[in-house]
Amino acid sequence: MRFTRFVRRIVLLAALPLLLLAVPAVSAATASAATGTGWVRLAHLSPNTPAVDVYLYSFGDSSAQIVLHHVAYGTVSPYEQVPAGDYTVAMRAAGAAATSAPVLSASVDVAPGSAYTVAGLGPESGLRLQVLDDQLTTPSGEALVRVIQASLKQSAVSVNWGGQVLDGSLKFGSVSSYQTVSAGTATLTVSGGGEQATASVPLAAGTVHTLVVLDGAKGLQIDDLLDAAGSGTDPAGGAATGFGGMAPRGPSSPLPWLAAIGAGLLLAAAGGLRVRARRVPAPAAGGKHRVPAARS
Amino acid sequence: MKGGGRHARRKGMSAGRRTAALLVAAGLAAAGAGAVGLVLTRHPDAPQAALLQALPVPTGPIEAAPPSGAAQVAEPASLVIPSIGVSTSLVHLGLTSGGALQVPPTTAVAGWYAGSPRPGAIGSAVIAGHIDSVSGPGVFFRLSQLQHGDRVYVRRADGTLAVFAVTHVQSYAKDAFPTTAVYGAVPDPELRLITCGGTFDYATRSYLSNTVVYAKEIS
């Protein structure tokens, strides 16, 4: 018996650290599953390259996670939410077999909470797939803007936003850095080589925009892409959305009340036993008095 | 002296009996008080799951977010979450003078923070509702029971419908609220449903945590 008890104790002691190890593993898995995603979008920004089919593969997979068919110049797909990890983007001629060798491919490492644009840039003769890191956080009350120069006709353009120069000489096939601008509507002017294009663009606070300069049918054209949006002004802290009507009242542990019940019952039992004890008369004293004393 | 002993005995018995009777009474009173206290401090009964009426799934023209331009999407008008029995109109919420999120004026309706993107447009749309009133459950009483994949429907002012699926549910201490995760910009149409949770602090009469449900548009 002693030995069995001893063994049982040892087993329990050994089990405890294993249980403790299990807890962080579970919570880590839940956290990464909940937030371990990023976003990817695909863009065709090479003016003299014909339409393409674009494939997104999880690294090592032979079947694509996303396929976009007949993507023509100027097209930017909406963002797709994908699990974080390594991916491969492949471009094939529109209509080519999915098993044929791609014209171009690039790898993207998607970090949790991050966004990327994979863009075909440059002239057809020098076509490349570039992975752009897209920014998602904006200064409170302001907007973020960057420009992609995808016009072949103009080797370099100057970009002006409401009087603020965003980039004085943005070369063809290149991407400007992000600029912080005041929220509001202002005129965007893009000029180069004697040509000019203007657009009235509203930039709401808390938004991120990518402006794409393209060769349109009538010359320089500006596409305004809303990349991301959040609250124009972030509320301070959380929300005071509760009044306590459904919260537990008083101490949540039942122990104090159970102790009171137990003590009370013990007291009552003690009192009851005393009553019972008192009913049995004391034999010596009673016997003596029963014999009446002889008195005159 | 004849009855003296008996008399004495009787006296002794009464005193003893009185003490015993007092003990019984005190004991029963204590036990009774304990029982009453135990009952009163148990968690108030939540509305029975059986009483939860099955809400019909909303129908209507479903419109996904347009490729760009938040202004193109109509404002939200109402919110339906069939799996937890929520069906409410949406009031507009702003910010308090202290910069915190305004809360709906009654505990029976939810509100959309008008400074956040419109539900169904690109970005993180914020909707808040009360978990309870001073006496009973509020519109978002069951919010923390939402599961991954549960559908959330937002009807817009123009009659179109935006459909979302829950991605995850988190609880945050209010004094460590992750502003960026909840209100920060995202590149696709998403929702944040916010209510209170956790321990209720009777000293300040407020809950110490917020429950945030994240959902993304699926059509």
Provide the descriptors you would attach to this structure in a database record.
A: Immunoglobulin-like; Immunoglobulin-like; four-stranded antiparallel beta sheet; B: 219 residues; Sortase, Chain: A; 2 domains; 8 strands; 19% helix; 31% strand
How would you describe what is shown here?
The complex is a heterodimer of chains A (296) and B (219). Chain A is of the alpha+beta class. Chain A is 23% helix and 41% strand. Chain A has three helices and 16 strands. In chain A, the strands form four sheets. A four-stranded mixed β-sheet of chain A has the order 4-1-7-8. Chain A has a four-stranded antiparallel β-sheet with strand order 3-2-5-6, with no helix packed on it. In chain A, strands 12-9-15-16 form a four-stranded mixed β-sheet, with no helix packed on it. In chain A, a hairpin with a 7-residue loop joins strand 2 (52-58) and strand 3 (66-71). The longest helix of chain A has 34 residues, at 2-35. The radius of gyration of chain A is 39 Å and the shape is elongated. Chain B has 219 residues and is of the alpha+beta class. Chain B folds into two domains: 1-40; 55-217, Sortase (Sortase, Chain: A). Chain B is 19% helix and 31% strand. Chain B is built from two helices and eight strands; from the N terminus they run αββββββαββ. Chain B has helices at residues 4-40, 179-183; strands at 76-81, 86-93, 110-113, 123-128, 151-156, 161-173, 189-201, 206-217. An eight-stranded mixed beta barrel of chain B has the order 1-2-3-4-7-8-6-5. In chain B, a hairpin with a 4-residue loop joins strand 7 (189-201) and strand 8. The model of chain B is unreliable at 47-51 (pLDDT under 50). The interface between A and B is large, with 76 and 95 residues.
